[in-house]
Amino acid sequence: MTAAPPPPAIVAALVENRGRFLSFLRKRVGSAADAEDILQDALVRGLAHAGDVRDEETAVAWFYRVLRNAVADHWRARAADGRRREALARELPAAGPDPAAAGELCRCFEALLPTLKPEQAALIQAVDLAGRRPVDVAAEQGISPNAAMVRLHRARKALRVRLEETCRACAAHGCLDCSCAPPR
Q1: What is the rounded CA–CA span in Å between residue 115 and residue 120?
Q2: Which long-range contacts (CB under 8 A, 24 or more apart) does 150-155 make?
Q3: pLDDT tens figures, 33-90
Q4: Which of 45, 97, 109, 114 is deepest in the core (most CB within 10 A)?
Q5: CA distances from 90 to 26, 67, 79 (A)
Q6: Residue 25 forms beta bridges with which residues?
Q7: For the ranges 30-34, 54-58, 153-157, 170-174, which has the lowest average pLDDT?
Q8: Contact 51/3 with Cβ under 8 angstroms?
Q9: Whole-angstrom distance, CA of residue 6 vs CA of residue 53
Q10: Domain locations along the chain
Q11: In angstroms, rounded to a whole number, what is the distance separating the alpha carbons of residues 170 and 175?
Q12: CATH class for domain 8-93?
């Protein structure tokens, strides 16, 4: 059974109040982009059920109820995502680098650390070389574990780019006991 199409007057009332709806959402989510996304999703869901609303005067109040539910869903999803990321951040350091493989790795990357941004080099030294947990480094820097993991990912990516520029083929194939030329 398909839903009845929304009456044109109700669609017009919703479109007419779009600016007010966006303002309502921005105050509750803090981001214009998130507010736009939530409004678009709510409009799609709301218009699917707008055929049940019989007059345009109650349509706006009804749609604010739809928006309040959408905001609650947004924050619920954001909190769940944050919990998943923090759990991942706690689990990743437990695995750590393989101590047996550490002796086989080429050490040419150490000469490239000074070519990175200082905060990236410091993060790689703390986590990858000193074996500290990103969660602990995050606490020292006053940032969330998720932010530390993102920064560590970016630092490793920057180092990988520098390795590939310097070492070429050996970096692309694992950088194990290579004989690269020293970095410039």
Answers
A1: 10
A2: 151/119, 151/120, 151/123, 152/123, 152/124, 152/127, 154/120, 155/116, 155/117, 155/119, 155/120, 155/121, 155/123, 155/124
A3: 999 999 999 998 888 877 777 777 788 888 999 999 999 999 999 899 888 888 887 7
A4: 109
A5: 32, 35, 17
A6: none
A7: 170-174
A8: yes
A9: 8
A10: 8-93, 97-172
A11: 5
A12: mainly alpha
* Whole-number pLDDT of residue 58: 84
Residue 5 falls in which region: left (phi positive, over 0), alpha (psi -120 to 50) or beta: beta
Note the CATH architecture for domain 97-172. Orthogonal Bundle (1.10)
0.90 surpassed by pTM:
no
Residue 50 tokens, joined: 């707008």
Whole-angstrom distance, CA of residue 75 vs CA of residue 70: 9
What's the pLDDT band for 143 if we cut at 50, 70, 90? Answer: confident
Which structure tokens are listed for 37?
Answer: 């996304």
Q: Is residue 34 classed as helix, strand or coil in its secondary structure? A: helix
